[in-house]
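W.,

You were right to be curious about this one. When I first looked at the sequence I had no strong expectations either way, so I just let the prediction run and decided to look at it fresh. Below is the sequence, 456 residues in total, followed by the output.
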Amino acid sequence: MLNFNQSINDNPYRNMVVGVNTKVRIDNGTYTTAVNFDNAATTPPFYSVEKDVKDFLPWYSSIHRGKGHKSVLSTEVYEEGRKVIKSFVKADSENDIVIYTKNATNAINILAYVLSQQQDGRDVVLSTWMEHAANDLPWRDKFTIDYVEIDEFGRLRLDDLEAKLSKYKNRVKLVTVTGASNVTGYINDIHAIAVIAHRHGTQIHVDGAQLVPHVAVNMKPFGNDEHIDFLSFSAHKMYAPYGSGVLIGSKSTFEDRLPYCKGGSAIKLVTHQKIWWEEPPQMDEAGTPNLIGIVAMVSAIKTMSRININNAYKLEKNLFTYAYNKMKNITGMKFYNHPDKQETIGVIPFNVEGVHHSLMSAILSYEAGIAARNGYFCSHPYCESLLGYSAKDMDTLMKDSDAIFPGIVRISFGLYNNFAEIDKLIYFLNQIAMNKKYYIDKYSNSRGRYNIKNEV
């Protein structure tokens, strides 16, 4: 058996990330080095982020208030961060603004609220079958929503996007699409989608939560047919904890309407009779901000820029190819993406025949200290479709209190993972595939340790 604690073809970025050598207790009572293959959910932080946050803490203070030295410095850090973020995704320097948010979900909810106040007769939002709930649910109670179809490989059908834009004509307020799927890892051609949307006289929003941490993003200038009108993303998926994110778009979009959240910092002046709101972006940043989260996010972006995100993508792609090719040889393996059909980020969705998705995740954790994800990954309709279930099927399952829900296992790579970790995964996947009854009895039946029911 391999010594999985040794480094094989070690990763040059591995020593930049906190916690990669942490030991966790496994089922036999020993400790092993934890392996995190759940980076699509949350990444560990950079050491540079940890240092920058620690260095800033003595200077932490309120922003936009008072003349105290720490307050002035904190305000400068807060505002300078917007410039770093805009540069990173090549937002339009003159017209775009950066609104600080809690995460991508919060950003999309803000955008939906803002656009719903514009009474221009455009009452339709086109989302897609590929979306995370964060880029679906915020639109449902504010617009008529329709979904761009996927093909037999789970890829977006751009011909259906064209058809739906033609069908609704001038009623489409926005095309909102994920830049990269958190389920299949498929990278969508956001610029081709932008051209189609703009040709039909509407705008595009890109949910960049999975795209921005892995692929170089260029929003492109206003007036360019490939311009991305709105972009949202989260810091916790790009090596910065503390809960922060952004919404980027044209300043004019966010003017002359009510803010999503109301309170201090969003106002210029208030009487009991009247409110004078601040200008965007401050208008949508009510209350004391998460300045530490913003410091962390900006620090992570600076580190990603020094690394060069294209270099990180190539490394992650090598990890993906290595893992995928080895997993193909495992008995009973089924994949839910087709990397030969469309470019992907480092995400592999799979199941092993005869092993429930939640049990598989449990076995990998208890036996090997490997963290994987399972279920529907907050992208329920997409996963249901990939698994071959209809909305009616899911309704039936929800009505059955004894139903065991289907799902998918997902592994996802970060720029710090290495080949030794993949070898460890492959070894245990093979063990599970060859000894299903043993593991099912051990973790599901005989000890009743892991309840696999109703987990999505």
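Here's what jumped out at me. The chain has two domains: 14-45+308-445, 49-306. And, maybe more interesting for your project: Residues 4-8 have pLDDT under 50 and may be disordered.

Coffee later to discuss?

I.
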